[in-house]
Description:
Chain A folds into two domains: 7-45 and 149-219 and 324-379, FAD/NAD(P)-binding domain, CATH 3.50.50; 89-142 and 220-321, D-Amino Acid Oxidase, subunit A, domain 2 (D-Amino Acid Oxidase, Chain A, domain 2, 2-Layer Sandwich), CATH 3.30.9.10. Chain A contains eight helices and 19 strands. Chain A has helices spanning 15-26, 61-77, 98-111, 121-127, 149-162, 206-210, 289-302, 347-363, and strands at 7-11, 30-34, 50-51, 89-93, 117-120, 137-141, 145-146, 166-168, 175-179, 182-187, 192-194, 197-200, 220-229, 239-242, 254-259, 265-270, 310-321, 328-331, 337-341. In chain A, strand 15 and strand 16 (265-270) form a beta hairpin. Chain B has three domains: 7-120 and 269-359 and 453-475, 3-Layer(bba) Sandwich (FAD/NAD(P)-binding domain), CATH 3.50.50.60; 125-265, FAD/NAD(P)-binding domain; 367-440, BFD-like [2Fe-2S]-binding domain (Arc Repressor Mutant, subunit A, Orthogonal Bundle). In chain B, strand 12 (223-229) and strand 13 (236-242) form a beta hairpin. Chain B is globular, with a radius of gyration of 22 Å. The complex binds flavin-adenine dinucleotide (2 copies). Residues 11-17, 34-37, 41-44, 46-50, 172-173, 201-203, 205, 209, 224, 226, 268, 317, 319, 341, 343, 345-349 of chain A line the site of one flavin-adenine dinucleotide.
Amino acid sequence: xxxxxxxIVVVGAGIxxxxxxxxxxxxxARVTVLERASxxxxxxxxxxxxxxxxxxxxxxxxxxxxxxxxxxLWDQRFNGAFHYRRCGQIRFIDHEADIPTTERxxxxxxxxxxxASFLTAEQVREIEPALTGPILAASWSPDDALVNPxxxxxxxxxxxxxxxxxxxxxxxxxxxxxxGESVCGVRTADATIPADAVVVAGGPWAADLVAPLGxxxxxxxxxxxxxxxxxxxPTIRGVVGACKSEQGGVHGGYTQIQQSEAGQILFxxxxxxxxxxxxxQNTIPQVDLRFVSDSIATLLRLxxxxxxxxxxxxxxxxxxxxxxxxxxxxPVGPTGLYxxxxxxxxxxxxxxxxxxxxxxxxxxxxxxVDPSPYDPxxxxxxxxxxx
Amino acid sequence: MTGRSAxxxxxxxxxxxxxxxxxxxxxxxxxxxxxxVLLDLFDRPGGQYFMQPPHPVSGLAAAQxxxxxxxxxxxxxxxxxxxxxxxxxxxxxxxxxxARQGERALVVRAKALVLATGAHxxxxxxxxxxxxxxxxxxxxxxxxxxxxxxxxxRVVLAGCGPFLLVVAAQLHHxxxxxxxxxxxxxxxxxxxxxxxxxxxxxxxxxxxxxxVAPLWSRFRFGRVxxxxxxxxxxxxxxxxxxxxxxxxxxDDPETIDDIDALLVGYGFRPSVEIxxxxxxxxxxxxxxxxHHVAIDEASGATSVPGVFAAGEITGVAGAYxxxxxxxxxxxxxxxxxxxxxxxxxxxxAGRADRFAKALRRAFRVPYAALGQLxxxxxxxxxxxxxxxxxxxxxxxxxxxxxxxxxMWTRAGMGLCQGRICGFGLSVYAAQxxxxxxxxxxxNAARFPARPAxxxxxxxxxxxxxxxxxxxLADESRGGLSGSASRD
Lengths: 387, 487
Ligand SMILES: Cc1cc2nc3c(=O)[nH]c(=O)nc-3n(C[C@H](O)[C@H](O)[C@H](O)COP(=O)(O)OP(=O)(O)OC[C@H]3O[C@@H](n4cnc5c(N)ncnc54)[C@H](O)[C@@H]3O)c2cc1C
Ligand SMILES: Cc1cc2nc3c(=O)[nH]c(=O)nc-3n(C[C@H](O)[C@H](O)[C@H](O)COP(=O)(O)OP(=O)(O)OC[C@H]3O[C@@H](n4cnc5c(N)ncnc54)[C@H](O)[C@@H]3O)c2cc1C
């Protein structure tokens, strides 16, 4: 079924909503994007926006490869508008025991045609000369890239708008309306907008919006934090993270360090992830002291030369977490309702995949990527309980 | 990390800011019997109004400096611990502040806080405003007062408000040739009418008028600086008239040449960073300087229990309301920590507040005209070199608040974090896209409130984590109740 003449409302103008709006409008749909604040102002505009296949998700590897290719295509199509740069990613190793785990990741990525490899500490210094802290070894994925998160959202949205999509910003969707078994529109504070279909790309707010329709989805908010230094001369070339491991400490959680095009060093270390209380996404608190302390400790251990550098700012956002760390993308509940949320903190990379899956589902055809890892039905009653 | 550890300071009450408001709050709290530490960024207490120069002063400033010296003396003698050169950059719950004194990290634990961090000048962009030689009047005043340096030989002053008169008098006294004083308000009559209603201010006003009398022929009203020109340094300036609605009117045919400094100021902007980190609710009113801390007028209590505020951060009003507000907040903070204080408001308190409000009405900042001034190439954000045309495009694409503009242009992402460019961005957005400044918002302060080195942050956070909380509302620990606005 073609999308011509169908009016589709996309709720949320983060990177997922922007990519989805573009995919739909390009297939001929009439698209209206509704965004509560400024486009990209929630998680997407706080992102480190690394697009990498490395040590990411074994089961999603084909989708991730497709996503990285799509980003590279977009870069060409939009003439570098969002500053795509293929800078590569290093994952440092502190423990002997993590070497086999790392080798396993490298092997399975290479088997899929990627070019991850193993580095000794000396080789790491050839790639990242400022990384002089004591590490054992590292893995290296040269194809991983960075984009400017703000400009990515803006470029995709602009392209969607140029193709005819409408953006209504600073307008919250308060409810989704149904007639019989089908979705028929959405309501904002001062308008009722009829729609043939509604795609909810509302990040950590997505579950609450569909709950009144009897759709219960296991999406909970999780606090994500970051720190930035004042602009520095070029110091860090690519993305530096902690390897996946069972060793706890810095490897039990998450570390990402990179330098922005403007020169600021962006860094975060989260020792344990966890979840936040329901509704936490509605206020934006300050960073935790523990987070600041852990992040600085890791940064200065790896890059001792940065010691006297000034920190400029920090920020906090809430990601949407699901029990198996994968998006929920596809039809849910009444006819015409589609879910595109559950980013689990790595949704920037996945945005084109989710957009493709939603567009294919709306067209009722099989698309370019296998949607099964993201099938909403995996959380249907009895399969997995709400976390 | 460096092997050093942070110094821990415990006190019942901690006052942040040593201007009129902070000094007065500290004194009131101490007199109620509370133990008080006062932290101030500058080398010497006094803040802006009571700034204490390292050398003797004469002229208009002498009485003010003397009054400040006397107050500082009283505060010291009362037993308040004054710590100068301390920059507060963080907070953990209402009971713990993170700060630095030079290269040393400091953690202050208190049962109540009084915030009195003052204001900074409002800068508004116009073509040529980034030329060397263009600066804020307050910066020029500081040069003269503290360092005995004049900003230039031939100087033009422009902007809005009584502060222009003060600086004109001080520059004249310091030997500058003040070529023009250009005030945006339509005429001096409103000021005169306001003054007539407040006999208590006649002496002060007469002193000021006497000091500027020799310059009277140099005053022009109802116009604004339209452009600063020069090769590598300002040397020429032109003006534009304002219409009855405060919008730009015709160009003023006069240009002034051969100047070496142009001082432009449109009032002050409350320094609400620390209050924001603590989660205090803010309000917006352009005539009170923009975003300011919302307080209960009688006690200075903010929306966060145990945190009180006074002075310019509660709405720009000047030194006397700051003194009165400080006394109220200091007494209320003392009561909060269980030291009942019989607070009697200073006799001038009500009058000072009324006078401040009347002055705001007398001087009307021409917000619309200020938003019209930038041309396409004018930088609105200096740190990140963002032009007006970039901001216009972002507004067009839906980045319709301070955060949206910031994401899409980087305006406000640089060293000043929006403290300098925030005002200009909001008047421009109001003009360009009809956006109300309250909903346009501002770049919200985030930890650290001021840039601080990694190793000092590490020491301060480690010490704050290790040391049990001073006191205060447990729920405010860790995750501070933040704003709904995104950063
Ligand atoms: C510090 C940090 C680092 C990160 N690093 C990476 C990385 O390196 N690589 C990576 O892939 N990912 C990374 N991420 C995660 C990535 O940014 C997110 O997964 C992604 O941006 C999620 O996009 P989204 O569109 O789903 O969500 P959002 O950006 O949150 O978009 C949802 C939008 O919906 C709007 N909305 C919600 N409800 C409504 C409603 N009822 N009406 C109207 N609008 C509504 C919201 O306002 C919001 O704008 C990082 C995140 C953070 C915070
Ligand atoms: C540049 C400038 C010049 C002025 N000149 C005059 C004048 O000549 N005449 C006049 O009547 N009014 C003047 N004012 C107006 C002035 O704001 C008030 O008159 C009066 O000083 C306000 O008192 P306050 O206590 O609220 O703030 P302030 O006097 O500004 O005191 C605030 C104090 O807080 C400290 N502080 C701020 N942030 C921190 C932090 N993070 N950590 C530690 N300490 C901190 C500052 O160092 C300062 O000492 C001026 C204002 C400015 C900005």
